Q: What sequence folds into this?
């Protein structure tokens, strides 16, 4: 319950501090390595193993934020998501995580899933 | 279990042999009127200071040679008469010597009906079963326990019942007389004041010292427990009082008649002022947590909401408001409100304020407001009549403009009438327009929620949305009741299932003491069994492992329940907490080879919950990791449950 309240209360207040974006290689990360980094760094805990989101964190995939915005958020979050500093999560790993999130296919339209169209 | 030894020569038990009522029934099969035995028949007690003779010592430790040495009408038979007067259907309990006399009377003199003994393997399970049972049946159960070690086991479940405003009658056996009680284990199991351990989270307790005192206290306890705000009560039951025959104090002990107390209604002036504010509001919002105490409460809330075309935020302490209603709204609906009425909220502060656990301010986090500064707040809460000091279930202090110390459901009829009279004709068009806007928002929210549920639909481990919707797909044509949903499946059941009836959703534990889900769902399933309903629970892994013996109780007593596991293989709330703290401190988390931080994962070895359940008489299957296998497994399990047995599916799931 607490989590619902935190989220409901603060999700609107999320501010991307884009001015603090770190500079790192713009090239795409590695999705396979990214999956490992995503698990190792605990992103799955709040966002689900395929970034689907839920009560503890919003969806990250499919169609993740661009790398720069994602990185700005992860480094500077002052809301309900605890920030990850470079010492813990290097830029290369974050780029890999981004590549992993990008590799996640789009979900089906709920209208095509009978179980989601029950009265 | 330690059993006291009969002793014909020593201590206070001695006089029992002298008490004769020739021809007195010793095992009456039906409840009858009991004639008390005269105290004058009893010889004087032997002084306690005398050292035991060899004969006495032998009698204390040996097996009794003959039966029926206790003559007269047992005091505990009279206790059964008192208990039976209250029509208590079940007695979930873990047996204990300190209530052996009452136990014997209940099953032999009382015929093991009303109440029927349900064998439990942990006192916490027994209390939580009573907790779940009440939320379906609307009637409390009795549980007996050792007053010391048993009540110690029971305490967390008593706290949950307290926070969830649920009546449970807890009776603890205790041997008060230090001079005469058996030494050794029974003395370890005795205390001056056993109720002290639960006094902070029970509505009332007592230690009766005579049978008449017992009958008054038991009926009083029942009455207090059943007066809103409901809550648990405790009675300490002296072993001597149970075991000794009835004595004549001049008048025959009687069983007081139980007459329910009418619940407290809101003050007329305050109700009028609340109605005026609501009728004049541009954007009134109704927030409810445990407002509906019965199915009738749901209907009353619908009336009030439609009258005002006001959005309703159901926090889900009970099934307060139909999820299929267009006025059913998410917590964010408070943002634009100018008047908010909260009914039976456990935490009004958190409705209108936010707390963010972001490590700011030296680690304590930040607080913010979620509403406009001039928003008027109204509260109807019976809990204001029953606040204690030690445990902090009253939450942070929130200033309210019109606070009423009253029961919401009892106050709603008067409030509805007052609102009808307070709505001016010229506001009616604006109110209707509000309803139209709400219909549109409701439809948009519904589509958005379903699209969110489609994410990770085919993932393995299985997404919580898929878990919940596969389950619903198989039960939707039954008269279903979701008896517990523990471990947090992102609230998908209340977001996606068309909950309309009071028994569709029972709320949560109240005090968030983990270990509530398994026993409470079995207690609720018992009540549903008697009503011919189908019970389903979402059962988390951590919750089940607190006291899994309750699975055996369900099989033993043929309580049908479909338990669908949300097995995310961890204490996931704590997984996230430790990660959060590590991030605040800028150091990597020590995973110790597991997925979650050391001390939070339940893996390596993975617990085979299906085998655990099977070993206790359940039909079970798992681990199910492939979402395509879930539907067929559910079908099989449901057929078993419909045949009257419990069934469990061990499903590996996403974390939330």
A:
């Amino acid at each position: 319950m607490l989590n619902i309240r935190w989220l409901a209360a603060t999700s609107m207040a999320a501010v991307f501090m884009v001015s603090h974006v770190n500079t790192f290689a713009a090239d795409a990360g590695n999705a396979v390595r990214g999956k490992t980094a995503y698990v190792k760094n605990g992103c799955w805990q709040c966002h689900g193993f395929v970034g689907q989101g839920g009560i503890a964190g919003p969806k990250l995939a499919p169609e993740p934020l661009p790398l720069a915005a994602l990185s700005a958020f992860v480094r500077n979050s002052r809301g309900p998501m605890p920030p990850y500093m470079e010492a813990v999560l290097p830029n290369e790993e974050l780029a890999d995580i981004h590549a992993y999130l990008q590799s996640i296919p789009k979900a089906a339209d709920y209208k095509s899933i009978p179980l989601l169209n029950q009265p | 279990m330690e059993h006291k030894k009969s002793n014909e020569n020593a201590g206070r038990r001695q006089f029992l042999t002298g008490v004769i009522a020739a021809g007195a029934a010793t095992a009456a099969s039906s409840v009858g009127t009991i004639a008390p035995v005269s105290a004058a028949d009893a010889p004087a007690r032997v002084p306690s200071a005398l050292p035991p003779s060899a004969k006495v010592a032998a009698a204390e430790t040996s097996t009794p040679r003959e039966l029926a040495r206790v003559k007269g009408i047992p005091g505990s038979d009279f206790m059964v008469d008192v208990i039976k007067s209250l029509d208590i259907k079940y007695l979930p309990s873990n047996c204990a010597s300190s209530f052996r006399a009452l136990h014997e009377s209940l099953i032999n003199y009382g015929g093991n009906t009303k109440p029927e003994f349900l064998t439990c393997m942990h006192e916490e399970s027994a209390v939580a079963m009573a907790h779940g049972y009440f939320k379906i049946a609307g009637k409390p159960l009795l549980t007996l326990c050792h007053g010391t070690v048993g009540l110690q086991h029971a305490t967390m479940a008593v706290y949950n019942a307290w926070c969830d405003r649920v009546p449970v009658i807890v009776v603890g056996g205790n041997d008060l007389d230090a001079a005469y009680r058996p030494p050794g284990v029974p003395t370890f199991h005795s205390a001056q004041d056993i109720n002290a351990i639960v006094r902070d989270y029970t509505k009332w307790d007592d230690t009766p010292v005579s049978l008449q005192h017992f009958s008054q206290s038991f009926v009083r306890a029942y009455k207090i427990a059943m007066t809103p705000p409901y809550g648990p009560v405790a009675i300490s039951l002296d072993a001597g009082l149970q075991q000794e025959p009835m004595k004549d104090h001049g008048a025959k002990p009687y069983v007081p008649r139980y007459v329910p107390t009418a619940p407290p209604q809101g003050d007329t002036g305050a109700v009028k002022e609340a109605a005026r504010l609501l009728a004049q509001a541009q954007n009134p919002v109704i927030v409810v947590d445990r407002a509906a105490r019965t199915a009738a409460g749901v209907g009353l809330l619908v009336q009030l909401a439609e009258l005002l075309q006001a959005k309703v935020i159901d926090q889900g302490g009970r099934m307060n408001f139909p999820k299929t209603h267009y006025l059913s709204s998410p917590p964010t609906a408070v943002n634009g409100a100018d008047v908010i009425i909260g009914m039976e909220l456990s935490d009004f502060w958190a409705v209108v304020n936010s707390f963010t656990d972001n490590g700011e301010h030296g680690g304590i986090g930040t607080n913010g407001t979620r509403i406009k500064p001039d928003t008027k707040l109204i509260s109807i809460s019976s809990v204001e009549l029953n606040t204690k000091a030690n445990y902090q279930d009253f939450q942070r202090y929130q200033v309210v403009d019109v606070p009423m110390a009253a029961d919401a459901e009892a106050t709603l009829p008067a409030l509805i009438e007052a609102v009808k009279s307070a709505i001016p004709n010229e506001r009616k068009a604006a109110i209707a327009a509000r309803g139209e806007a709400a219909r549109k928002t409701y439809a948009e929210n519904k589509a958005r929620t379903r699209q969110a549920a489609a994410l990770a639909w085919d993932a393995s481990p299985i997404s919580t949305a898929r878990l919940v919707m596969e389950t619903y797909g198989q039960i939707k044509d039954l008269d279903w009741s979701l008896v517990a949903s523990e471990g947090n499946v992102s609230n998908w059941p209340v977001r996606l299932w068309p909950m309309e009836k009071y028994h569709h959703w029972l709320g949560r534990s109240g005090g968030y003491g983990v270990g509530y889900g398994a026993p409470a769902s079995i207690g609720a399933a018992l009540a549903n069994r008697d009503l011919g309903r189908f019970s389903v629970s979402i059962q988390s892994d951590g919750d089940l492992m607190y006291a899994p013996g309750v699975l055996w109780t369900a099989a033993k007593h043929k309580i049908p329940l479909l338990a669908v596991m949300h097995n995310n293989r961890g204490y996931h709330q704590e997984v996230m907490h430790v990660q959060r703290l590590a991030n605040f401190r800028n150091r990597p988390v020590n995973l110790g080879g597991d997925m979650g931080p050391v001390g939070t994962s339940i893996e390596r070895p993975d617990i085979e919950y299906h085998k655990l359940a099977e070993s206790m008489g359940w039909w079970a299957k798992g681990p199910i990791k492939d979402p395509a296998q879930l539907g067929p497994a559910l079908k099989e399990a449901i057929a078993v449950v419909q045949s009257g047995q419990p069934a469990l599916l061990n499903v590996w799931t996403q974390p939330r």
Observations:
- The mean pLDDT of chain B is 92.
- Chain B touches chain A through 59 residues (CB under 8 Å).
